[in-house]
Design goal:
Strand content: 5-15%
Shape: elongated
Protein name: Serine/threonine protein kinase
Number of helices: 29
Organism: Haloferax profundi
Number of strands: 19
Radius of gyration: 33 Å
Distance between the termini: 65 Å
Structural class: alpha/beta
Strand order of the largest sheet: 8-11-14-4-15
GO molecular function: protein serine/threonine kinase activity
Helix content: 40-55%
Keywords: Kinase, Serine/threonine-protein kinase, Transferase
Length: 690
Amino acid sequence: MTGEIETLADLSKHYRDSVPADLREAKSFEWYLEEVYADPKIARNAHQRVADMFDFYGTRYDEDAGVVEYLMASEDSLHDGENVFYGREVHESIHEFVNKVKSGARGLGPEKRIKLLLGPVGSGKSHFDWLARRYFEDYTMRDEGRMYTFRWTNIGDVIRDQDPSDNVVQSPMNQDPIVLLPQEQRDIVIERLNENLDAPYTIRNDQALDPASEFYMDRLLAHYDDDLESVLENHIEVIRLVASENKRQCVETFEPKDKKNQDETELTGDVNYSKLAVYGESDPRAFDYAGAFCNANRGIFSGEELLKLQREFLYDFLHASQEQTIKPKNNPRIDIDQVIVGRTNMPEYREKKGDEKMEAFNDRTKRIDFPYVLEYEQEAEIYRKMLRNADVPDIHVEPHTLEMSGLFGVLTRIVEPDSDTITLVQKAKAYNGELDDGDDVDVRKLREEGEKKADIAEGMDGVSARFIGDEIAEAIMDATHRGRKYLSPLSSFTHLEENLENHGSIPEENLERYHRYLEMVREEYKERAIEDVRHALAYDIDEIRRQGEKYMDHVMAYIDDATVEDELTGRDQEPDEKFLRAVEEKLNIPEDRKDDFRQEVSNWVSRRAREGTSFNPQDNDRLRRALERKLWEDKKHNINFSALVSANELDDDERNAWVDALVDQGYSRDGAREVLEFAGAEVAKSELEG
C-alpha cells in the first residue's frame, strides 16, 4: 500500500495476520497429544528451540574463517538490517555461542552451564543478547517455533477451599502440557515422539510439575479415583504460549540493583502475601512465581552484569545451571528449563577470576569472548550503520573518513607485533585482508601471537566503537554549526584527539600511546589522500584498460612460453619483460616473486572467463593499483606541479578538472578542495624535489 493512507481497518488486518491463529483458542489435552505426535518438535526443550531458532532465520558458511554466519545477526531481516553485526571476531563469538546452545540441545553438558558473554564495554555482547531475545519472541509466534502450556479450570468445583478468583489458574511456570503425564506414561509418549522426530537431538522431559500444579493434580486425582483422563478432560485447557519479555513470559532480563541489598526472591519468587490469609503459609498456592527464573522458564534468562552480584547471591545460579532447579525460601525445589545467558565486562571478570571461592561458579560457566572488531573496514560499517539508523544532517561523508576512524580503533585493540618486519599499521591491514602475496606475513601466526600476548584475548581492550561513533556524531554536528556540508578524516581526527582525555573509560596510562596511534592513522590517511590526488591528476580509465589488456597478453605469452603480436608492426615478439616489470615494481614485487604474481593474475583471469565474466583490470585490486601507479609515472611529466603548491598559479579550469576527478572518486566539491590543499602540496613537493 505504498503511497496510500492506511486505514484503521488496514492496520487491524495487518495486526490480526501477524498473530498466531490459535493464540486465543483453548484446546483439549487430547488435541495436544495428537498435535505433538504429528509434530514432535512442539515438545522441544528451551535449548533445542533456541538452537533451531538460529538455523530457522538462515545461515551462511564462511569457508575462509570456518565460521557459520547466522543471518539474524548479519542481515537482521526482522528490523530491516538495523541491528546488523560486523566483523569476523563478532561472528566467531556468535558461532561459538550457538554451538554451545546446540551442544546443550543434544544433552552434551552445556545445557547445564551458564553461557557467559565476556567482553569490553561496547563490544556488542548486550546487543546480541537483546537481538536473540527479540528473535526468540518472533520465532515462538511462528508455526515452526510454536509451544504450548496449560491452565487449570473449574478448580473450585472440586477443591472447596479454592479462592473463587483462582478458579482458572495458568501453569505458574508455563510448563509443557506433557509434564501433566506421570513419568512412566510420559516416557511412553516421548519414545513414540523420538521415533518420528527429524532432528539432531532427542526429546527428553523428566520435569516434575511445579508445586502448585502438583497440589491441584493430587487433589483432583483423589477426587476422580486416580482417573487421569477425567482430570485432564475436565480441568485442563491447552493454550498457545508466546514468548514476551514485556509480559515477563519465557524471556526475562535480570539486572542487579543495590549491590549491598540483593534478595534471592528476585530470582526464585516469594510468598504471595495476599494469599496467605486464604491458603495458609505452607500451602503451595500461596507462593508467587514472579522470580526471574520462573518468568524465563521455557525460554531465555538474561543476566546483565552478572559478576557484579554478591558471591552468595550467585549460589542460586549454581542450582539453576547444574541441577536445572531453583530452591525458593521455605518452598520445594522447582524444575526449570531455560537457556541461561550472563553478560559481564572485563573489570568484574578479572576480579572474580582469581577468587578461589568462585571456583564452583566458574566451573558451571561456559565463557564466550566478545571482543572488539579487528578489521577496520568492518569497523567502518558499524559507523555507517549508526548513520543509517539516525536522522543525519545533510552532510557528505568523505572517502576514508570512517575507515580511518576504524583504523584508529583497531590499532588500540591489537597487540603490537614482535617482529621488526611488520608495523602495527601493517598488522591491522593484514587483519583487514589487505595482504599482498609478496608480503611475507602469516596472518594466522599473527593472530596466535596476539592471543598469547593479550591478557585474555586480542580485542578485549582498547577504544570502543561507541566512543568513536560518538566523536563522529560530534564532528558532524560541529560541521553543521560551522556551515560545512562535509565530514572529512581531518575533522574526525581533531575530535578524537581532543576528547581522548575526556573519556572516562580510557585509562590515563594509555593516552600517550593512543595519541601516537592517531598520528600513525594521520600518516596512513596522508598516503591515501596523496594516492587519490595522483589518481585525479593523471587517471585515464581507457588507458588503464588498454595497459591492463597489454599486461595480460604479455603475461599469458610469458607463462605459455609463446610470442605476442607487436602493436605497431604486427610481428610476433617475445613478451616485453621490461614492460611487465615496470608494472610489477609498482607493487614492490621482487624479481624472485614475479612468477607467483603473474600466475596469480593469470588464474584470476581464467577463473573469471569460466564464469563468463570479461576481463577488466578495475576488478583486480592489486593489478589496478599497479597500473594506476605506472600511469602516474607515465603522465606526471605533463602536470603543472607548481600550481599545486601555489594557488595563484592554478588555472580555474585546471583546478575544476581536478576537483571533478575527485568528485568522481566520491568526494564532495568542498571535500575535494580540502584534499587538494592537504595532499596536493605533498604530491607537488615530492615530485619537484625528486
